[in-house]
Automatic annotation (TrEMBL):
This is RING-type E3 ubiquitin transferase. Residues 578-844 form the SWEET-like domain. InterPro entries: DUF2921, DUF2921_N. It is an enzyme of class 2 (transferase). Its main location: membrane. The chain crosses the membrane at residues 560-577, 589-607, 619-644, 665-686, 706-723, 735-756, 808-830. Signal peptide: none annotated. Its EC number is 2.3.2.27. It comes from the Eukaryota. It catalyses: S-ubiquitinyl-[E2 ubiquitin-conjugating enzyme]-L-cysteine + [acceptor protein]-L-lysine = [E2 ubiquitin-conjugating enzyme]-L-cysteine + N(6)-ubiquitinyl-[acceptor protein]-L-lysine. It is found in: Endomembrane system.
Length: 859
């Protein structure tokens, strides 16, 4: 214990804890607590996280300012795994495999200890359950020591960089060789505190600004808006590459608008994106101030110290300096967003800093792009496409102008993925966070149910535009001699980056640009880039296929020449997105209507048999079992969607204006009601047949119908499986589609029962069998309507109604199945008017009459 006061017996409970909850990712060590990533599962990295949560009650002790408290400490694994889950998103049993993220493992320590409000120190002991390799569960015993610096609850003026840090450690109390031992965990948190005193940058010297020409300044009251809450990645330009880190990561943790000052976490790492695990040796904490005289951000950074050695001293020497400036003019050859320097005051050798990362683009007032290759682009770009009336292409400022793409060589072999995004459109910075536009801004809504794109004003004047194109070769891609020079342009992440500028003609969707790629000590601008966008109002397929080329204009003998690159992108346009969103809402409504009508039709059938109880024995049990399974299977496979789904998954994606996930739960509730009604009808029929026995031949007819139905279903299932194997389709998908076909023919067992019984009783109400048949027919009619009026998805993950996984859907099936369902309904209708054997040949009907002739007893 580090308290210098005795820990006496506690008394008096208080409702609010004296120390705050905190959460941080700034900790290191204890690797044993974080399960290693599993090589056989797909995962993504979410980062480590630690959460300290004090209990609601604490107890005052006999020592003034010392309290007994309880708390829990959580450690979250950095890996989130995917697992396959079956879900139902359409009527009739559409089950599809969907990868859903599974929550990472968490280690939980339950702790008890004492807190000193005077020294601002905490000491606690506790344990966590842990499973060892052989499956046994053991306890990890540990001691937690934390120093909270100054009091964050009161408005004191002594909050500085030295005492505004929560630091400490969690250490195992077991011996090093014990299986419950784990490495010490060093913990840091940098909370936002009130009345923070930026003492480091208030009177610091050593920053040389120079002229502010060519660099961006700040407008009043814009400092925190532009710089706070935004991570900055900077590349360090060493004269000689070595084992030193290549990037500096700055993340602001607090901002003062009045003083134009910031608190930063400064981290050195070898990644230009994302965030490496925390390390005490590569992480600094610092302050920054804006210099209006030189348009420069000055940063002072301090080392953080190991809290095990001396708890309470979290911040060490503040000898690191950074100066950053934001360039005012970008060009195709020089697109550095941020330039600066970093140095240590003990070693005045300065290292240049540069940021080319598009994610760090800040919309400073006065930022502009200078086009230097437009004349060359206009000379090289010939207008090839004719303007076609009625075709609408993306606007130069729209979301559709940026896209992912596949990259192929001259042989048609794909060797890389790429990404293209505008930097400037005309003289305006392209909106990096462009969102899907609202329907009102698109236009009116047509009779087909989706927004009508109004044709924009055509401009004969080409639109100036600049682009950033990144190409990411596959890990083992072979460039060959024809593409080997592209390796000269690969950055530290292995990407090939091309800056381009040129002209875009919105009336034809043609984009032509001159490109430049950086070499080691020069720039190659003998590159021509072309893209052709598809019309937004094109209905052939859901994706507007954008095609393009990148080619070198050098001669083949030139050492910098490379073969043509072919580019293609299945760009999901905002127009198609609006159509799809409207269609999804429509399909959810149709599913709800279908399931609701199912409930109504079943209820009417129950009412019908209540009024005519003698008809119960004339209803096929096999038919009712098939219909019950049609409602039950979706509920069984998606039970977690109804009761166990997280609230976060019920929020809407894609800005639909509806609540897709919540509506899915509503659909399942209605489906459950239909299932329960169907079970009630099944129970009534079963009870009636059991009570009658074989008096009216009901069981004999039922058995005969069953003996014929089951072999038919089995034979049909084998044929479906054989076809799927021949076509190399999913076995599960084939079974699901065939189950939908069985549901389409739900009247087959009833027709067979009617034939064997020869009955003309109206066992089924017209609303039941005609309405249920209509519910099976409408999805096929809608499938054809959707194919002709909506974009066709190559992956039907968003089909909530008439899902191709739930039944057989195609142009042929959409004709054959409805005709078959209608034919079955007509047969039942005629059977209930003319007799069950009306459908069989005349001689079998005569046999029926013969069997009904009563025998004469001579006695």
């Amino acid at each position: 214990m580090f308290f210098h006061t005795p820990c006496n017996h506690p008394h008096h409970s208080y409702p609010h804890p004296p120390l705050p909850y905190f959460r941080t990712s700034h900790f290191s060590g204890g690797n044993k607590l974080f399960a290693e990533k599993q090589s056989n599962q797909t995962y993504y990295y979410v980062g480590k996280a630690l959460t300290f949560r004090p209990g609601r009650s604490f107890y005052e002790t006999n020592t003034n300012g010392v309290y007994k408290i309880e708390a829990v400490l959580y450690f979250r694994s950095p890996y989130r795994y995917y697992h396959e889950a079956r879900t139902d998103n359409s009527y009739g049993g559409s089950y599809r495999h969907r990868s859903t993220p599974r929550g990472p493992g968490t280690t939980r320590f339950s702790l008890n200890g004492f807190w000193s409000d005077v020294s601002r120190k905490l000491c606690m002991v506790g344990s966590a359950s842990w499973q060892v390799e052989d499956g046994r569960t053991v306890n990890l015993d540990a001691v937690l020591k934390l120093n909270y610096g100054s009091d964050h609850h009161h408005n004191h003026n002594n909050h500085t960089i030295y005492n505004s840090v929560i630091s400490g450690s969690l250490e195992s109390v077991s011996s090093v060789n014990d299986e419950t031992y784990f490495d010490p965990i060093l913990i840091f948190s940098f909370p936002d505190v009130s009345n923070y005193n930026y003492s480091l940058v208030s009177h610091v010297d050593g920053f040389y600004g120079g002229s502010k020409d060519g660099f961006l300044g700040l407008e009043p009251h814009s400092f925190c808006r532009l710089l706070y809450g935004r991570a900055t990645f900077l590349e360090m330009e060493y004269a000689i590459d070595g084992l030193l880190p290549r990037f500096v990561y700055l993340y602001p943790i607090q901002c003062s608008e009045d003083e134009k000052k910031l608190r930063y976490v400064v981290k050195f790492q070898n990644m230009s994106y994302g965030y490496d695990d925390f390390s005490i040796d590569s992480t600094f904490v610092g302050e920054a101030s804006w210099d209006d005289d030189h348009n420069q951000l000055n940063v002072v950074a301090c080392r953080i110290l190991n809290p095990i050695n001396r708890l309470g001293d979290a911040v060490g020497a503040c000898t690191m300096r950074l100066s950053l400036r934001y360039t005012a003019i970008w060009t195709i050859r020089d697109d550095a967003k941020i330039v600066g320097q970093i140095w240590n005051i003990d070693d005045l050798k300065k290292i240049n800093l540069t940021s080319y990362d598009g994610g760090s683009v800040i919309d400073f007032p006065g930022l502009r792009y200078e086009y230097t290759e437009l004349d060359k682009a206009k000379r090289s770009c010939l207008v090839k496409k004719n303007v076609k009336k009625g075709e609408i292409y993306p606007d130069g400022h729209s979301y559709d102008m940026k896209f992912d793409m596949s990259v192929k060589n001259s042989k048609g072999e794909q060797f890389a993925w790429g990404y293209a995004s505008p930097l400037f459109v005309g003289n305006e910075l392209y909106e990096m966070n462009n969102r899907l536009i609202e329907a009102d801004s698109v236009g009116t809504v047509s009779d087909t149910g989706f927004a009508v794109i109004s044709e924009p004003e055509r401009s004969a004047v080409p639109l100036n535009i600049s682009y950033k194109i990144s190409i990411n070769p596959f890990p083992h891609a072979k460039f060959g001699n024809s593409l080997s020079t592209l390796n000269l342009s690969r950055n530290i992440q292995g990407q090939i980056e091309i800056n381009a500028e040129g002209v875009y003609r919105s009336e034809t969707g043609h984009l032509c640009m001159v490109g430049c790629r950086k070499l080691h000590n020069s720039t190659d601008c003998e590159i021509l880039v072309n893209f052709d966008f598809s019309p937004l109002n094109e209905k052939r397929g859901s994706f507007s296929l954008t095609k393009g080329t990148i080619r070198s204009t050098r001669t083949k003998k030139d050492p910098l020449f490379f073969d043509n690159l072919s580019l293609s992108s299945a760009a999901f346009s905002t127009y198609v997105a609006k159509q799809s969103i409207w269609r999804m809402d429509l399909e959810i409504a149709m599913v709800l209507i279908s399931n609701t009508l199912s409930c109504v039709f079943i209820a009417l059938q129950i009412f019908h048999v209540k009024r005519n109880p003698k008809t119960l024995s004339c209803i096929s049990l096999v038919m009712l079992v098939i219909l019950s399974l049609g409602h039950m299977i979706p509920l069984v496979l998606n039970f977690e969607a109804l009761f166990l789904r997280n609230r976060s998954k019920q929020a809407l994606m894609l800005n639909t204006g509806g609540w897709i996930e919540a509506n899915e739960v509503t659909i399942r509730v209605v489906t459950m009601v239909a299932f329960l009604l169907q079970i009630r009808l099944l129970q009534l029929v079963w009870t009636s047949k059991m009570s009658e026995g074989n008096e009216n031949g009901s069981w004999i007819g039922e058995k005969k119908a069953t003996f014929i139905s089951f072999p038919l279903y089995i034979l049909g299932g084998l044929v479906a499986l054989l076809l799927n194997l021949m076509r190399k389709y999913s076995l599960w998908g084939g079974l699901l589609s065939y189950s939908g076909l069985v549901l389409d023919g739900f009247l087959v067992p009833q027709i067979l029962l009617n034939i064997f019984r020869g009955s003309a009783d109206k066992a089924l109400s017209h609303t039941f069998y005609i309405g249920t048949s209509a519910i099976r027919v409408v999805p096929h009619a809608y499938d054809q309507y959707r194919a002709h009026n909506y974009p066709t998805f190559h992956v039907n993950g968003t089909y909530y109604y008439a899902d191709h996984n739930a039944d057989f859907y195609s142009t042929a099936w959409d004709v054959v199945i409805p005709l078959g369902v209608i034919a079955l309904a007509v047969i039942v209708f005629l059977q209930q008017r003319r007799g069950g054997r009306w459908i069989v040949p005349q001689r079998f009907r005569e046999l029926q009459l013969y069997e009904k002739v009563p025998t004469v007893n001579n006695e």
